[in-house]
Design brief:
The complex is a heterodimer of chains A (454) and B (515). Chain A is mainly alpha-helical. Chain A is built from ten helices and nine strands. Chain A folds into two domains: 103 residues; 327 residues, no CATH class. The chains are: A mainly alpha (454), B alpha+beta (515).
Chain lengths: 454, 515
């Protein structure tokens, strides 16, 4: 038994308190850092000395500095992030798509009613040129509005396509980042901050697409997306985009050329964007085309059997579209002059015969497209867009709530409470003071010893 | 369990965001006055709002259609009232002149007033609103009651013109028929273009305002044309109103207008009431009937000769006296039994009710001149102009002149003939016919009145319907401003509380108490 042992114990206490304060300071400093997991230092007793037949303690040492971390919750967070990514992409895309369909903006519904009303005007005054000219103008307006709608949808689809391409660049940065973190962990060992950093990258990646992660015994992760290993302990694979015949990008693994099949990927921003690009918008455009094609064809069928003021028959009203596809984008009026409007059903009845104008006006109340009237079909389409947009918003809100709850649980496990850290500071400060007191006491013991006048 | 500062902060943000977004929505509603500002705000409501908006547009169109139909029908109604008054005046004159106290001179003078009445009635029957003749059925572009021009073969059927090309001058022969001026214009154009073998096109126009033709040589044609009216072959010149003393040279891109208004000439109309002969060729009195239809003078003569037998009778018409004569060439006596009530053809040809016994090679001369069969002939059709006035409902916005005026013009024509011929029987007949014309006119006027009533009812229904749809639209679409404002206030208060609370929870920690 030696007084110097007392010094050593006091010294180890001082050091441990300093270390513990360092860890606490690190926690406080990172209290707001996203993806930061609280670090806890565990303290062990030093190896005791066997003195005089007894084990006498020799002080304290650092047990471990580790992240307070729940891998199961973390996995759930990745999955939920991916789901939220899907709905986020869909909700923000649908906001723009529904703007196109907003009647205040598009005016297709009212333009269509104006078009049929204009035929009524011609029917009440088949001799008049002003009514006929006004009819041609309303038909042009209707065409222009439907063209515009089709163009805006196609443009937006193209811009989503560009976003897909840009997202792939971000994804490649993340893949490379995860690989670099893997390498640093392999070389320097698994430091908590390095693990946090890698976890952040993986979480960010799952925002783009749903992924699976596996960890080997050295703590190195493998990231698998749709059966393709993008990050491995020793290597990584970048993605690249490849355009199809329409110029729409598919995504494939650069070094193998294997396409990523998004049917197998359940979530992520990319998934949401591709869904909107490949299914939602084309679906709306198809319906618009179907309506435009049917409207033009039905009007033409009647119009071509009627007679214009110039006595001629066989003229179409709209330029007859070749096929349903792109009918909305190409909708245009064929006739140009007031005389060419075939309001009459007979040549003999010119100019007072209004039967054809009335027959065309009557098209508005017939169920000619998918069992609906044109107005009804279009209204249903807009309503469908609204429901899709509302569903995307609701899904996003629901995942936001789930995410909040999940984050709360993650924070309960891994978050930093400043109160708690402040309490720790006091605790470690007190421990430091107490250890200092031990050294002071040891010093006094020495003094006493040295002052002995033998 | 640790409540981290981040959790507190996130919770604060989540609550703040929720309230801010509710405030934004309420603010948008207050600003736009609308509950639905994009389809996703209420997809079903969006559908309904669009439906209601379309229905309102449609109903407004029905109101415009109703207004337009009312204009036509009320015009029809007042015109028919005037026509009824006019016929009543003719009826008074018929009553007056049917009495025996008038001389033939009185009656002949009276015929002038009746002729004026006929013109007034024609003016009413040719009423138009804008460019639209309301009594023409579908044929609203030309006057429904028009005088006709008769083209007779060898009389007034040819035009000679020269365009300087080989083979000229060319003589064109018009088809002989009874034409309206517009039809004749089309016939002249077709024949001119067909005559010279060139690709040149011409336009022939007739103005109902000046009653004159004009012939134009279209821009882009190769040759100027000379219309050789002075040529004896141009028999149509005076019928068309061109001066036979001067030719017209028509340069490419210009037109030659007629010098005078056309002289209308009338054809003959054979109907069930004037088609029957009672003739005795020696083997007893037999009935011979003409085919009904419209005839030129020449074709009527051919028809009568064919029916009576070309070997029996030749028919002549003296254009100075305007009287027919029937010459017996059968070699045996023929008796025309005009006294037989069945022998209505006497009216067509101008014979009185005394039998004519015609010896072989003799002639029966008509007693009165036959000018015209009908001065104003209906050129329209009987089609209805139907206008939609409610979902699935239409109203017929016109009454064809043939329904309204019926045979009134031929009645008046006969009345005038009877006055000129001092024929009291004819005047008495006209009296009866005017009465029945008046009746059918009154009936159609009642039809117009009934339709006007129906328009009023439908319009009222339409207005009521529009109001209720507007209310429904407002119910679906309009924001509840009071509720929006309350939400705004409530959420603002919630945010204030949240901020106050957060100042305490977020800004403070144990550090604040460490000295």
């Amino acid at each position: 038994m030696h007084i110097s042992n007392l010094f050593n114990i006091g010294k180890s206490g001082l050091l441990i308190s300093q270390y513990a304060l360092n860890v606490t300071a690190h926690n406080v400093a990172n209290a707001d850092t996203a993806g930061y997991n609280r670090q806890d230092m565990t303290i062990d007793t030093s190896a005791p000395n066997f003195i005089g037949g007894h084990w006498i303690g020799s002080g304290v040492k650092i047990g471990d500095v580790a992240r307070s971390y729940d891998s199961f919750l973390q996995l759930q967070a990745h999955n939920e992030t991916a789901r939220r990514g899907t709905y986020d992409a869909m909700s923000s895309s649908m906001k723009r798509v529904e703007d196109v369909f907003n009647e205040n903006v598009s005016g297709v519904s009212s333009a269509m009613q104006d078009f049929f009303n204009a035929w009524d005007e011609v029917a009440t005054g088949p001799e008049g040129r002003p009514q006929r000219i006004s009819l041609i103008e309303t038909a042009k307006t209707l065409s222009a509005r439907i063209n515009d709608m089709s163009t805006r949808l196609a443009d937006y689809r193209q811009s989503i396509n560009n976003e897909v391409s840009n997202s792939v660049k971000d994804v490649n940065d993340l893949i490379e980042g995860i690989y670099r973190s893997n390498r640093l962990i392999a070389e320097n060992g698994p430091s908590p901050d390095m693990l946090d950093q890698r976890e952040r990258s993986i979480n960010k990646l799952s925002e783009y697409m749903q992924l699976n992660r596996f960890e080997d015994e050295d703590g190195l992760v493998t990231v698998v997306v749709s059966g393709q290993s993008l990050v491995m302990p020793q290597a990584y694979s970048s993605l690249e985009v490849t355009p199809d015949s329409e110029g729409m990008y598919g995504i494939r693994v650069a070094n193998t050329g294997d396409m990523l099949n998004f049917d197998n990927i359940t979530g992520g921003k990319l998934k949401g964007k591709l869904e909107i690009r490949d299914s939602t918008i084309p679906g709306y455009m198809d319906q618009l085309d179907t309506m435009a094609y049917s409207l033009m064809t039905e009007v033409n069928n009647l119009h071509s059997t009627g007679y214009g003021l110039d006595g001629k028959t066989g003229r179409r009203f709209f330029n007859q579209p070749a096929a349903v596809a792109d009918a909305a984008a190409n909708m245009s009026v064929f006739i140009t002059g007031a005389d060419e409007v075939a309001a009459s059903s007979t040549s003999a009845g010119l100019p007072g015969d209004n039967a054809m104008a009335k027959a065309i006006s009557d098209l508005q109340s017939q169920s000619l497209v998918a069992g609906s009237t044109y107005a009804d079909y279009y209204r249903s389409l807009v309503s469908q867009v609204g429901m899709d947009a509302a569903a995307a918003n609701r899904d996003l809100e629901a995942t936001d709530t789930v995410m909040f709850q999940l984050n709360t649980r993650l924070q309960e496990r891994s978050g930093v409470s400043l109160d708690e850290e402040a309490a720790n500071i006091i605790r470690f400060q007190r421990a430091y003071e107490a250890s200092a007191k031990i050294i002071q006491t040891a010093d006094k013991l020495f003094e006493t010893l040295l002052a002995m006048q033998l | 369990m640790i409540i981290s500062n981040r959790t507190l902060y996130d919770r604060f943000l989540l609550d703040l965001r929720g309230n801010l977004s509710a405030i934004q929505t309420a603010q948008e509603q207050v600003a736009s006055g609308k509950r639905i500002n994009r389809p996703s705000d209420d997809p079903t409501g969006t559908y309904q709002a669009m439906d209601y908006a379309n229905r309102i547009d449609r109903m407004e169109q029905y109101t415009r259609n109703t207004t337009s139909a009312r204009t036509l029908l009320s015009h029809t109604d007042t015109t028919l009232q005037s026509a009824s008054d006019t016929i009543a005046r003719a009826y008074e004159l018929a009553v007056q002149y049917a009495s025996g106290t008038y001389t033939s001179i009185d009656r002949a003078n009276g015929s002038k007033e009746v002729a004026e009445i006929r013109e007034a009635l024609a003016g009413l029957a040719n009423t138009r609103i804008g460019d639209r003749y309301i009594f023409g059925g579908w044929k609203t572009g030309d006057p429904p009651y028009a005088s006709t021009i008769v083209i007779e073969p060898g009389v007034n059927d040819s035009i000679v013109f020269d365009d300087g090309t080989a083979g000229g001058p060319f003589t064109v022969t018009l088809d002989s028929a009874i034409y309206t001026p517009a039809q004749l214009a089309d016939e002249i154009k077709a024949k001119l273009e067909a005559a010279n073998g060139s690709a040149d096109t011409y336009h022939v126009a007739f103005s109902y305002d000046t009653n004159k033709f004009s012939i134009s040589n279209d821009t882009g044609n190769a040759n100027a044309i000379d219309l050789l009216w002075t040529n004896a072959g141009s028999t149509a010149a005076s019928t068309l109103g061109f001066d036979t003393g001067a030719d017209d040279s028509v340069a490419v891109g210009s037109a030659a207008g007629a010098d005078t208004a056309v002289g209308y000439t009338q054809g003959f109309t054979v109907t069930s009431s004037n088609k029957t002969f009672r003739v005795d060729f020696g083997a007893g009195t037999q009935t011979i009937t003409l085919n009904e239809g419209a005839y030129t003078r020449a074709s009527l003569i051919t028809e009568i000769q064919n029916r009576l037998g070309p070997a029996n009778v030749t028919v002549n018409y003296d254009s100075t006296t305007a009287k027919f004569s029937l010459t017996n060439i059968s070699g045996a006596p023929i008796t025309f039994a005009w006294s037989d009530p069945l022998a209505t053809a006497r009216n067509l040809l101008g014979f009185d009710s005394a039998d004519d016994a015609v010896p072989a090679s003799g002639s029966a001369n008509a007693d009165s001149a036959v000018f015209q069969s009908e001065t104003y002939k209906y050129q329209g059709d009987t089609s209805s102009i139907n206008v939609p006035i409610a979902d699935g409902a239409v109203i017929t916005s016109n009454i064809p002149g043939s329904d309204a005026f019926g045979t009134v013009f031929s009645t008046i024509d006969k009345f005038i003939s009877a006055l000129n011929a001092n024929d009291t029987d004819g005047i008495n007949e006209a009296l009866g016919n005017l009465q029945s014309n008046q009746n059918s006119l009154t009936d159609t006027e009642a039809t117009a009145g009934a339709r006007l009533n129906r328009l009023d009812i439908e319009e009222q229904r339409n207005e009521d319907g529009k109001l209720s749809v507007q209310q429904a639209l407002s119910g679906v679409e309009d924001a509840d401003i009071v509720e929006a404002a309350t939400t705004l206030y409530r959420r603002q208060a919630a945010i204030d509380t949240l901020r106050n609370a957060s100042i305490r929870t977020l800004s403070q920690s144990l550090f604040d108490f460490l000295k």
